[in-house]
Design goal:
The protein is built from three helices and no strands. It has helices at about 35-40, 45-85, 85-100. The chain is rod-shaped. The model has no long low-confidence stretch (mean pLDDT about 80).
């Protein structure tokens, strides 16, 4: 159907989509505002705080033990290195080397 032809079944022109050719209504005004425009950040701060806490709590056991182990290992290595580079450590190392070459017990 095109133009202003009559519908053979109903005898009326049904215009473009959604326009059925009836009388125009008066006094009905419709306004719409999307929810995003009404309150775009409603509850964002509160949700961010609680979601961050929940996510951190869920990942705690995956993150903290490896970092704690790495910290303890690094701390042990630094202390051992400082000992080996100190006067006492050098004396101990020299004594251990002497005992090892003479076949005696090696102190740890």
């Amino acid at each position: 159907m095109g133009g202003s032809e009559l519908d053979p079944k109903h005898g009326a022109y049904f215009g473009p989509w959604g326009n059925f050719g009836g009388q125009t209504q008066k006094g009905i005004i419709t306004y719409a505002l999307s929810p995003n425009r009404q309150k775009p950040l409603a509850g964002a701060t509160r949700s961010a705080i609680f979601n961050t806490y929940r996510r951190c709590k869920a990942q705690f056991l995956y993150v903290v033990p490896p970092f704690a182990g790495a910290y303890l290992l690094m701390n042990w290595a630094i202390e051992k290195n400082e000992y080996y580079n100190s006067k006492e450590g050098r004396i101990h190392d020299a004594e251990a080397a002497d005992e090892a070459t003479q076949g005696g017990p090696v102190r740890a």
